[in-house]
Prior knowledge:
Mean pLDDT: 89
Order of helices and strands: HHHHHHHHHHHHHHHHH
Distance between the termini: 44 Å
CATH superfamily: Na+/H+ antiporter like domain
Strand content: under 5%
Helix content: 55-70%
Number of domains: 1
Largest sheet: none
Structural class: mainly alpha
Shape: globular
Oligomer: single chain
Amino acid sequence: MFAPVRALFVSDASAGILLIIVAAAAMLAANSPFAAEYKQLFYGELAWTPIPKLDDLHLWINDGLMAIFFFVVGLEVKRELVSGSLADPAARRLPMVAAAAGMLAPAAVFIAVSGGGQYSNGWAIPAATDIAFAMGVLGLLGNRVPASLRLFLLTVAIVDDIGAVLVIAVFYTPTIKLVWLLISAVVFGIMLAMNRAKVGSLWPYVLMSVVLWYCVLNTGVHATIAGVLAALTIPMQRPDGNSMLEKLEHRLAPWSAYLVVPVFGFANAGVSLGGMGIEAFTDPLPIAIAAGLVLGKQVGIFSIVWLADKVGFAPRPANASWPEIWGISILCGIGFTMSLFIGGLAFPQQPMFVEEAKIGILTGSAISAVLGYIVLRLTTTHTDAECDDQVNQPSEA
């Protein structure tokens, strides 16, 4: 009786299912009799904080705890670039152009629907794909989906994360304090020198990562960027041949997926609907974000995959049908974690816009998840044996 439920939490679906539960819990908390306590918990001024700049729990989560998430992202990116699916230039062509199109098209849809103006700073909100959420929905389909498509979705999401980090660093950094930026560069240089010197102990990297995070926090650049930079300095291997980076990634990934991201989701996904009129759902901002996620993502990714395959730039994923690729393109419209993160950066002085952005993110992500699942459920006919073998087979023209 309970086997299907247990299966959800021991598969790729578990992290995604947890995020769904967390998002629902946040919405319930924000619209319950305990709504005031929910808001006070995260936004109430702390009685004491070791860093005056982080004077509430929400800031500690978004600027501090999320640095661990970005650190894990950085580890994953480095591993994929050095020895994974992004190491082969030919293999990374398709996911890279797909991820780029999957960021540009939603941004274009957002600008077209919102009309720009006062909403223009939110153009990047629908440009991100949530790895855990998307892979979680894919996990609900079991082995029906070709292994090549699973790898494609994961790789696109990883490249997408790289793009999102660059967007945050370049477009959502209002002011930069040059002295702190110089100090951060020196600390980062020391960490690179440690890598070059083949320092085999993990703790010096951990300590210097904390120092780098504190320095970046004071530069004006979002502190979580320090997580990615620090991860890039972690050696792939110790002098004894054991993998430092993969071991660290395996240790931190569960904490990131099952603690850091859910805590972030619970702190950021709650939208108080009290006092909001129907315009909160029909304003250009939430509609533009939802449209960017639902329409922009699938049109951008599917179109570029079709074009790349037809002109011979890069073949589509092995043994994947076009309806299946369409379904995967729709799933890329799930933009929970990174979209919520960018939404808070886009409108720091406009809390109502942030709340409306959350509505658009949750709506667009939910539609993409349900629609993508339905399309894949109706179009995937592969057996388990076929799925195990497909990843290494060439695609048909």
